[in-house]
Amino acid sequence: MRPLPEDDLRHFLEHTRDVWEEARGGRFFVTGGTGFFGCWLLETFAFANRELGLGAGLTALTRNPEAFRAKMPHLASVELLRGDVKTFDFPAGEFGFVLHAATESTSNQSASDPLGALDDIILGTRRTLDFAKGAKFLLTSSGAVYGKQPADITHVPETYMGGLDPVDPRSAYGEGKRVAELLCVTSGVEAKIARCFAFVGPHLPLDVHFAIGNFIRDALNGGPVVVRGDGTPRRSYLYAADLAVWLWTILFKGAARVPYNVGSEEEMSIADAARLVAGTRTPPLEVSILRRPEPGAEIARYVPCARRAAEELGLHAWIDARTAVLKTMGWRPYKET
């Protein structure tokens, strides 16, 4: 896997340069280091560490250090700890910063093994919080904690008190993240909470359940770009370089035990997202929508209100959706096998 684009790393540092001073000489511990979020956290850390001469160190927890080294050979400076997030042995020494990025929504586990998903999220968060006593802690939570977003709320705020259906196994991921947040606020740890929505960028898997990743895969394979549903749900996509800016800024500068929505407010329908991706090719690719909308059906939304992050931390979506798609497509050619 090649390194992230230099311009993305420069963009990241431009918007975080002022937050890194307290990291000088510090030690960081990251779970989920090989996932989509983790890859961005590790690469941006390494870049800031080098460019700013921080003299900081980072240890990443992974089940398979050999696979990590094969995937990310350019991150040789990262120390690896073999273990499972639910049971890992604490590394020696003091760590001032802990980032818990394990159990992302890129996994299909919550659908195939709901109980296993709950165990990974809840037990993994508890184990990591036990390790993080005395450290600044970042939890990558999810917009899934809100449950079904009402059709009349175009951008859901952190103050929305909705919930999930507790007897629906598909609620496992969101319920797990709700409990993880509760563990954070009752742990005594200086925990920062990032409620993450939808993203696009290098390292995003193109063959799981994310529509935008599937559309990019289809386009790189020459089309058509296929929408499996009716195309009406509304989404927004924050580019991963901006995501990294938000996560590091929340860790260093966010209020403890206060959730911050992380995502773009630039909403679009799934059908429009498919057309956006198809339109990046010349000539534009065909878009195939497999289902027709049901008359009178409510629009499904998953779009955050990001006002708190903007007003308190100066965070924005600097990279628009079309540019984000183009940058993602240009990073790694993809062919189905």
Written account of the structure:
With 337 residues, this protein is of the alpha/beta class. The chain has eleven helices and 14 strands. The strands form four sheets. It has a seven-stranded parallel sheet, with helices on both faces. Strands 12-9-14 form a three-stranded mixed sheet. Helix 1 packs parallel to helix 8, helix 2 crosses helix 8 (240-253) and helix 5 (114-131) runs parallel beside helix 6 (172-186). Helix content is 36%, strand content 16%. The chain has one domain: Rossmann fold, CATH 3.40.50. It is globular and about 60 Å long. The mean pLDDT is 94.
Which features characterize this protein?
single chain, 337 residues, alpha/beta, Rossmann fold, seven-stranded parallel sheet, three-stranded mixed sheet, 14 strands, 36% helix, 16% strand, globular
Point out poorly predicted stretches: none
> Mean pLDDT, rounded to whole units?
94
Q: Separation of termini?
A: 17 Å
Which word captures the global form?
Answer: globular
CATH superfamily: NAD(P)-binding Rossmann-like Domain
How big a fraction of the residues is strand? Answer: 15-25%
Strand order, biggest sheet?
Answer: 3-2-1-4-5-6-11
User: How many structural domains in the coordinates?
Assistant: 1
Rg (C-alpha, Å): 19 Å
CATH class category: Alpha Beta
Number of strands: 14
Q: Strand-and-helix sequence, N→C?
A: HEHEHEEHHEHEEHEEEHEEHEEHH
CATH topology descriptor: Rossmann fold
Helix content: 25-40%
Helix/strand-derived class? alpha/beta
* Structure annotation, total helices: 11
What's the architecture in CATH terms? 3-Layer(aba) Sandwich
Largest sheet: 7 strands, parallel
